[in-house]
Every structure is written in structure tokens, then in C-alpha cells.
Amino acid sequence: MSRAESPRPSPESRIPNPKVRAMPAPDLVTGGSGYFGSLLVRQLRAHGRAVRIFDLNDADDRPAEVEFFQGDIRDAAAVRRACDGCAAVYHNVAMVPLAKDKSAFWSVNEGGTRVLLEACRETGVKKVVYTSSSAVYGAPPKNPVDDDTPLNPGEEYGRAKLAGEELCRQFSAAGLDVSIIRPRTIMGHGRLGIMQILFEWIRRGMNIPVLGKGDNLYQFVHADDLADACVRAAARPGPAAYNIGAASFGTMRETLDGLIAHAKTGSRVVSLPMAPAVALMKLTSALGLSPLGAYHSLMYGRSMYFDISRAQRELGWTPRYDNVEMFRQSYDWYLANREAILAARGMSHHRSPVDQGALKIVGWILRLR
User: Fold this and answer.
1) Is the distance from CB of 244 to CB of 221 less than 8 angstroms?
2) How far apart are CA 123 and CA 366, in angstroms?
3) Rounded to whole angstroms, how far apart are CA atoms 13 and 91?
4) Which of 104, 138, 190, 276 has the fewest CB atoms inside 10 Å of its own CB, making it the most exposed?
């Protein structure tokens, strides 16, 4: 039938049915039950987005209107089901340094990322935002870290995250639109993991160590600022990589002094000699006596901060929080929720309290200084 011969629709067929509304394509957040993923879900909801979560575990605080898909990021069929029909995918699932599981670093952080990217390509996802890590830079030769700084991770977690980035670049070259976000150490309300030990020590009035003078410039990023950068990156067409951190920050000592002044518990910042302290951190971590990972011993006493100008320029992004503000907020949240935190089970590493292990001995020694 020619175009001229096509029948015209009846008047009734042209009247929209008010009961039938096209639902917007949802965004998928992998790792949406974890610390940062859950905050990203909230920010997407605040932007009016329909959201679904893919994770091993559901979270008690998941909004009722947010869909939940349970599965392992290495399960191709489960991941494909979660991606099907999605507009954008925010990939946050990762085996973090606290896990100290080198095999899982690779099977999850590289292998799981490959599964996710293949599922996105197969289901026609328009945009992927991959949350990487500043660990891909290792201990940088200079600061600030910028687009010209070599990617040279210094431990297994960072190497696996870099492998995930390389997959993103490969899939981008083949036509999938993927942006990479590299955050500095994440802080904000709800941040636990290693930070829970810091907050608990300060609550008790214990002394807090820095390595050497503690004059290493160290940048953090608030989770809300990071989520804002991710949402903006998803809205910008074309693959890119962005370094994300606070615009205002100071030395490690200044950051801790600012938190201690806020807490008013009698804690002090005390210096430990760099070389022996790092050697002890590495040894106790390797023996499984400390929760600290290889990245902690590599970077705690070193300077690291990003040039964030590209994200500011291309995404129109401006971070709102400085180091001390985000530490104060995180500490106050911990105090307000401490009983529930200590009783919780089955949460992600960064939403859970940590067994201090050999750090209890360090804390006892610091009391004598």
C-alpha cells in the first residue's frame, strides 16, 4: 500500500487514553545497597529519575519505589536482566581494599565490569558511568594529579580497578558511551569502614596518629558531591574521565585537628615515624592482624590531590564541602547512629563497623604519648 493509500486513523484512535502513561526508562545503580550507591540512588530520585538497584543484598533503607534486582555482578544472566530497559547505568560494584581478597579484586572489579559492559551493549543502554578509584594512580610522582599523570597503581586493588577502566575504554572505542569517575577518598554521612575506627577513637578521647609531621596534603570528597558529579557525567554525551575531589582541603594533620576541635573529647594528633609505622602497617595487614589494606599503608602518609578543573569546566560541577566539614558531618552522624551501627550485620564494608585487630594495641600505645 502506498503512502497516499494509507488509511487515516479514526478520531477515536487519536484521543490519548489518560490511564495509559509511558513510564520513563529507569537508571540502574549497581552496588546500590552499598554506602555510596545508596546515596547516589537518593540523588537520582531527587532529580525525578526512576531507579533500580542491582546488588547481592537488599538494604533496609531502600525506598519502596526503587526496584531491587538481586544477583552477583559476575552472573551474566542476572546482570542482563537488571540492565534491560535502562537508560543509564551507574557501575559501583567493587571489591574494596578492606576485603584483602586479591582473587576477588580481579573477578569482581575486572571480570564483573566486563560482564556489566557486555550487558549494557546487548541491551542498548545509552550511557554508563563507571566509578573507578584514585588508587589507579598509585603514589603519584607529583601533585596535583591531572590528566597527564600516569596511571600506575601500587597494589592489587588499584591494578584491578585500572583493568576495569581499560575495559571501559575498549567498549567506548566500540561504540558504548562510558564515562569514568575517579574519586578521592569518600566521606560523608554514613561513611564507616576504616573511618569508624577513627570516629570511635575520637569519641573515647584517644590520640590519633599521623605519619611524620602529618603535613601531607590530602584531599577527600563528600559522597553527595561525588554523586552530583556522576549524575552530571551521565547527562553529558561522549566518553570521558574525570578526577573528583574537594576544592578546599589541607594537610592530614589539619583535617584531623579540625575534627578533634569539633568533637571536644580530649583527643590529640600525635606523630609516628614514617618508615617504621609503614613497615608495621604492611606486616600486620599481610598477617591478617589489622583491617588496613595495602593502599592504606601506601598512601596515609603521602600527599595526593586532584586537579578538578576538567570536571568543573565540562560538567559545570562545583564541590560544596571541604575536608573538615565532611569529617565533622560524618562524625556527628556516627554518634547519632552508633548503637544501630554496632548492632548491624550483613551490610557492605563501608556501611559496617570494623574489627580493629592489632590497631587496638596501637591505640593503647598512643594513650601513653
Assistant:
1) yes
2) 55
3) 42
4) 276
8 A C-beta contact, residue 8 and residue 321: no
Q: What is the phi/psi pair of residue 34, to 5°?
A: -80, 180
Fold classification of 27-366 (topology level): Rossmann fold (3.40.50)
Average pLDDT rounded to a whole number, residues 254-276 = 95
Q: List the domain boundaries for the chain.
A: 27-366
- The pLDDT tens digits for 273-294 are 988 877 877 776 676 666 666 6
Give the Cα separation of 282 and 16 in Å (integer). Answer: 67
Catalytic pick from 35, 130, 157, 218? 157
Q: What are the grid coordinates assigned to 58, written together?
A: 537488599
**DSSP state letters, 250-319:** -BHHHHHHHHHHHH-SS--EEEE-HHHHHHHHHHHHHTT-SS--HHHHHHTTS-B-B--HHHHHHH----
The 10s digit of each residue's pLDDT in 142-195 is: 999 999 999 999 999 999 999 999 999 999 999 999 999 999 999 987 777 778
Is 157 known to be catalytic? yes
Q: Cα separation of 127 and 367, whole Å?
A: 51
Cα 253 from Cα 218, distance rounded (Å) = 9
Residue-by-residue DSSP string for 197-229? HHHHHHHTT--EEEETTS--BB-EEEHHHHHHH
**119, 137, 26, 39: which is closest to 72 by C-alpha?**
119
Sheet with 67-70: strands ordered across: 67-70, 51-55, 27-30, 88-91, 127-131, 178-183, 240-244
Torsion sign (Cα): 23, 25, 30, 34: negative
Pick left, alpha or beta for residue 138 (phi over 0 → left; psi -120 to 50 → alpha; otherwise beta). Answer: left
CA distances (Å), origin 272, targets 7, 237, 269: 84, 47, 10
Q: Are 86 and 28 in contact (CB under 8 A)?
A: yes
| Contact of 220 with 184, CB cutoff 8 Å | yes
Confidence (pTM): 0.85
The helix (H) or strand (E) run that includes residue 52 is strand 51-55
